[in-house]
Write a structure and sequence with these properties.
This protein has two domains: 2-248 and 450-473, Aldehyde Dehydrogenase, Chain A, domain 1, CATH 3.40.605; 252-440, Aldehyde Dehydrogenase, Chain A, domain 2 (3-Layer(aba) Sandwich). The chain is 40% helix and 21% strand. It is built from 15 helices and 21 strands. The strands form five sheets. It has a seven-stranded mixed sheet, sandwiched between helices. A six-stranded mixed sheet has the order 10-9-8-11-12-20, sandwiched between helices. Helix 1 (39-58) packs across helix 8 (205-214) and helix 3 packs across helix 4. It is globular, with a radius of gyration of 23 Å.
Length: 475
């Protein structure tokens, strides 16, 4: 299996000979390769996106929406194919991959509908012969960088949002999971998207980002990934005065008050924590539990985590797959060793699982001190921290202590407590008494070091539009 680049409406192996290996993380075996873009390929993609922009921007919203709706239908028809590729290359259980791939059509359809709702406004003028209006235009060609943890779920938002707004796009998809990205792009190709409107490249991330962002063709940058890389791309974009959307890492607090249903919340928290082996930017990491229910919650979560079935994602009944990168195994071991050395209690897990693939046992730590690395750095893996608090103010203070601000969760039956969490926790997204994030119609994004801007919802398409004020005096 070799995945190719998609540039100017055609699939190509690229101008060079460099290839990247595609590995099954459940076995550690190489299962294919992916073509790496060279500078010449990126220049071709830039020329294609630049040349196609005027025509696509001038295409009526009605016609853009019609093409996107066909792409949505294609994505639904190929959802199982995408899901199988996600599981093989990312490692997540097939049930999770099916949810991700199955949602692609919904995201595309949402943006298709939003394309027809790019409204402007009339501003009453001070002179009767003057008409003042505000219109929104597509920002221009976009460079988009998507991650391997949700290789379809993140990429589809960027492509569909850009196209709905009238922008063209060069999408740099992850080398670890190229097959599902290629399938997704084929859904747009087969829907009739004109050549050059969508371009797909793989390769060395630093090379591609520096080349694309520095180009005068690119007018906007959209990035989903880690905080350190986001800072670098943000600095590079600022140097070239490019607009950006940055969806970066998180360290989500999960606050459980003493009036919450402990069993139900522990079941939800375990599922969210170990989904995709914890490799989720909005994954709950710091479980802050009020004193009266702390022990019950901890015991329940430890029992549930210990009982999770690990294995290859396509095996029957598997609840957690491997980490996608072998290097994440060492990172998990380092987090656990550091926390235990500083006084944390290891309740379950904390070690590699098996001798094949990149599995790490679901891990729960309790009584973790604030000076432990895992209390300050995003773990991005299957490690849950369970710490106690007394008054709600303490939990909110801990939630806000870190510079992250992507997602947060809160659980209580008391309106005063839920109101306090909703208003005072510093986060881009707050989910109270359930999991309510990442639907196509809702904005997804963070604040502080977790980035800026949103994908999804009406905010998602606004990210690809500029505002133009027009003041016209009638002759």
């Amino acid at each position: 299996m070799t995945e190719s680049l998609f540039i100017a409406g055609r699939w190509t192996a690229g101008s060079g000979s460099r290839r990247g290996s595609v590995v099954n993380p459940a076995t550690g075996e190489t299962i294919g390769e992916v073509a790496f873009a060279e500078a010449a390929d990126l220049d071709e993609a830039l020329a294609a996106a630049g040349d196609a922009f005027a025509g696509w921007a001038a295409t009526s919203a009605h016609d853009r929406a019609a093409i996107l709706k066909r792409a949505a239908a294609n994505a639904r028809a190929r959802a199982e194919e995408m899901a199988q590729a996600i599981t093989l290359e990312n490692g997540k259980p097939l049930s999770e991959a099916r949810m991700e791939a199955g949602g692609a059509g919904d995201h595309i359809e949402w943006y298709a509908e939003e394309a027809r709702r790019i409204y402007g406004r009339i501003i009453p003028s001070r002179a009767p012969e003057v008409v003042q209006s505000v219109v929104h235009d597509p920002v221009g060609p976009v460079a988009a960088f998507s991650p391997w943890n949700f290789p379809v779920g993140q990429l589809v938002r960027k492509i569909a949002g850009a196209l709905a707004a009238g922008c063209t796009i060069i999408a740099k998809a992850p080398e670890e999971t190229p097959t599902c990205a290629a399938i997704l792009v084929r859904c747009f190709e087969e829907a009739g998207v004109p050549a050059g409107v969508v371009n797909l490249v793989f390769g060395v991330p630093a090379e591609i980002s520096q080349h694309l962002i520095a180009s005068t063709v690119i007018r906007k940058v959209s990035f989903t990934g880690s905080v350190p890389v986001g800072r670098l791309l943000g600095e590079l974009s600022a140097r070239h005065l490019k607009r950006t959307t940055m969806e970066l890492g998180g360290h989500a607090p999960f606050i459980i008050c003493d009036d919450a249903d402990v069993a139900a919340v522990a079941a939800l928290g375990t599922g969210l924590k170990f989904r995709n082996a914890g490799q989720v930017c909005a994954s709950p990491t710091r479980f802050l539990v009020q004193d009266a229910v702390h022990d019950d919650f901890l015991d329940t979560m430890v029992a549930r985590a210990s009982a999770l079935k690990l294995g290859a994602g396509d095996e029957e009944g598997v609840q957690m797959g491997p980490l996608t990168h072998s290097r994440r195994l060492e990172a998990m071991e380092d987090f656990v060793a550091d926390a235990v050395a500083k006084g944390a209690r290891l309740c379950t897990g904390g070690h590699r699982h098996g001798n094949t693939g990149w599995f790490f046992a679901p891990t729960v730590l309790s009584d973790v001190p604030l000076n432990a690395r895992i209390m300050n750095e995003e773990p991005f893996g299957p490690i849950a921290i369970v710490n106690r608090f007394g008054a709600l103010d303490e939990a909110i203070a801990e939630a806000n202590r870190l510079p992250y601000g992507l997602a947060a969760f809160g659980f209580s039956t008391r309106n005063d407590r839920t109101h306090a969490m909703a208003r005072r926790v510093e986060t881009g997204m707050m989910s109270i008494n359930h999991f309510g994030l990442a639907a196509p119609e809702t904005p997804f994004g963070g604040i502080k070091d977790s980035g800026h801007g949103s994908e999804g919802g009406s905010e998602g398409i606004q990210a690809y539009l500029t505002t133009k004020f027009i003041s016209q005096r009638n002759a």
